[in-house]
TrEMBL record:
Pfam families: ABC_tran, TOBE_2
Gene Ontology terms for molecular function: ATP binding; ATP hydrolysis activity; transmembrane transporter activity
Domain ABC transporter: 5-235
PANTHER family per record: SPERMIDINE/PUTRESCINE IMPORT ATP-BINDING PROTEIN POTA, SPERMIDINE_PUTRESCINE IMPORT ATP-BINDING PROTEIN POTA
Matching PROSITE patterns: ABC_TRANSPORTER_1, ABC_TRANSPORTER_2
Signal peptide, first to last residue: none
Keywords, alphabetical: ATP-binding, Nucleotide-binding, Transport
Entry's transmembrane regions: none
SMART domains in alphabetical order: AAA
A single Gene Ontology CC term: ATP-binding cassette (ABC) transporter complex
Name of the protein in its database record: ABC transporter ATP-binding protein
Lineage start: Bacteria, Bacillati, Actinomycetota, Actinomycetes, Streptosporangiales
Record has ATP-binding as a keyword: yes
Origin species: Acrocarpospora pleiomorpha
Amino acid sequence: MTVALSVQDVHVTLGQNHVLKGVSLDAQPGEFVTLLGASGSGKSTLLNVIAGLQGIDRGHVAFDGTNVEKRPPRKRGVGVVFQSYALFPHMTVGENVAFPLRAARRPAAERARVAREMLELVQLGELIDRRPAQLSGGQRQRVALARALAASPGILLLDEPMAALDKQLREQMQVEVTRIQRQVGITTVSVTHDQAEAMTMSDRVAVMRDGCFVQIDTPENIYRKPATEYVARFVGEANLFPARDGELLLDGVTDGRTGTAVIRPEDLRVLTETEPAGAWSVSGVVRLLSFQGSRFRLEVVSDAGGRVVCSLPPQTDAATLLDGSRVRLGCAHPDRVHVIAATADDVQEDDAQELVVA
Ligand SMILES: Nc1ncnc2c1ncn2[C@@H]1O[C@H](COP(=O)(O)OP(=O)(O)OP(=O)(O)O)[C@@H](O)[C@H]1O
């Protein structure tokens, strides 16, 4: 199968900044790939490169196996939803959606038919005659999506599509946009710095840092098997412990693997006073127990001075975990402990906490 989108060794310099430093990414037909990274990591620049809005110093960009570096944006067959939605205020919803077809000089009957179809797809058929100012934020976003899909593009690009929405609406729209993307089956590249959004919507997540990809993988692998400490910290909360051969740190949990062990908060548990520790435990003092609706979040200062975060089930007896009380934490799922090899680029041993062996 031909890859729908191929970005190979792309470099971009803006002013004095080497903004993209040789990034490579393939997307399969129908795949939803999210570029996730901190502000300034180069996500929008890469999206603009794919759209043809940003030139490249070197490298290749191909759609369905054909190089497109020299193709102008309007001939690339790309639909874009911008963060601002960029709807035309003086046009109706229907005219907005049909705009790409008008620009392509398609006949009026076809424009009207496609506008209706696209608005049905995003479940806004009844709002076809309204103006953008008469719509809610979520509705505007759906109109922008309908417009981006109207000319049957080969690739859909979403630039921080949820950024303008409040949390509840953002979560609804994540599900809605994913439904539409799957229904249409369009290859999609989205940009976000919201890790929850990336995890919810994507087939694969490409984590960017400083103009490079650190890891491109499924959401589950990004969370469970982060390639570097940066990824472990950027996606969800992570407890990082040094795991070194021969020092018995995390003995029985890391199987002799060397590097930095990543233990997610939900994989730790509170041991009772009499309970044997198993292979190992961390002792410390409760700093704060907070109720978060479906879980408790327990923050402990270990005796070695590190911060350990634990996510506990709702039936936890909060009275036993008052601020300042002593606790021992054990590992609830040793099989899930992931070790980042010591050779990974960004292992910063000083950051990892000491673990107390039982
Ligand atoms: N015209 C420009 N001249 C010089 N540097 C630029 C220019 N445009 C962007 N940059 C720099 O390029 C880097 C990447 O910018 P980009 O907008 O791609 O990042 P981003 O990951 O999308 O960030 P954000 O999440 O804040 O949008 C940043 O350091 C930015 O300051």
